[in-house]
Give the backbone structure.
Amino acid sequence: MLEEKWGPWQARTTAQLLDTVAAEFPDLPYVLTDERTYTYRELAEFSLDLAAGLHAAGVRSGDHVAVDMANFVEAVALKFAVARLGAVSVSVNFMLRHQELGYVLRQSRSTLLITMDTFRGLDYLAELDQLIPGWEEAGGGQALPDLREVIVFATAGGRPPRGASLDDLLQRGADVPRALVVDLTGAADPQAVSDLLYTSGTTGKAKGVLLTHDAVLRTAYSSAYHRALPAGFRIMYAMPLYHVFGYVEATITTLFVSGSIVPKTIFDGAEMLSAVARHGVDEIMCVPAMTSVLLEKARAGTYDLSPMTSIFSSGTPHPEGMFAAMDEVFGVERIYTAYGQTETTASTMCTLPGDGLDRLASTNGTRKPGGCAGDEALSGSLAVYKVVDIATGEELPAGQIGALLVKGPIVTQGYFDKPAETADLFTADGWMRTGDLGRLDDEGYLSLTGRQKESYRFGGELVIPSDVEDVLIQHDGVLEVHVVGIPHERWGDVGCAWVVANPAAPPAAEDLIAFCAERVARYKVPANVLFIEASELPRTVTGRVQKFLLVERAVRTLAGADPVSV
């Protein structure tokens, strides 16, 4: 059915796809919230009105529009609104503090920022005051010269306490002819960049990954095709739109089956389980840290999960026994896990319907068939992987562990305005370095075995240790600091900071954690601080600290400890 409807493949933008589905199924539900349901027609019209407002604010094709918002329906509509103008959506991690936000806005050259007033206890306007005083009138000022204006979304409704509101933006768009926006939507290029998504990568500052409309749509279609999603399929998720998992494989994938999304602004396990029956949810999409909570809540309470037919859990390693627990507790027909990254637009390897618990527990899936969106040169897939020797670069046979490389039409063209990092991303013959270690078996299933990089994931969020080290070294009580990720059953990894203290002013671990919490996003704050003498640090002959040995020592030292509060 999908192949008959969408084949042969026609390149579109995300907004063009929305309009195509809205024209055929105007009254079907697309976005479901507890407050109201938005049909395809309503969401398309909302995005059209927002696009008119953005146009009135001076947004043009190729401009970068930063959106610093949780999973409100307005954020979903803004994705399509930006696409209508041929502009680029810069999805900002809403947990970033002002210094981190400033870097993203500056590096992305964003011309407009749409942010929240408050969310989960964070005052976003106070953060802006520290970053760009006078932003209400001067935009980015001298600190961020590309930023012309800031628009504020009031999360509790009504007007924000300061600044131009989203309603003001809609009002400004009232004089923009809708026919103009429709023409701009149709003229937008599917091969142009649609999204700039920031990933911390392996070293240095965050990098903006360039994704095109066509890559996003091909990946989304592949997700629907290989899992044989039926018409009207409903996916609930709490992963934010700055992650490709929730954005591409839920928000966009459902369009191909005229389905619905149930986006949650915050993750609440009990509430999500209750929402399954309330919204007729077919699938919960989550990272393992969320899956763990869902299992706990489901065991402790009574929930009607009868509408749910599948669960898609991916993003970090799963603790032993978790897939069996999912099968027992949720009783769904299908369980999926996958492998991918921002640079590959989302998952490129995924388990298949019918894969058993052993395969789920031991692999990250196999190449996703792309259907009509696939590449004939890749046997109908969208990506192909190979494993190479780390030292020689020679391809290794099945079963051997090495560095994982990928190529295909959904692989990013590189990082925005970072030519050196982009060059390092690819081999001379065009394969992308994933930074991961793994092996492929005789049937093409991938098993990840480790990382070449020092970054780690806390609950699905990527943490680059140098981001935290650069902050902690500013503390008067710190002479040297090395941050590592250590395995954690619920969160995937948690941060541990090894600190060489200043003997003249030795700090307490709690003080360093508080110091860090004031300056970086919450998920970057180390769960543990351990002190060490400089002479005890394990080093190579060239003086480089061997962080893998610090990981081993931290695991031994913290055995049985769990200072992370849920």
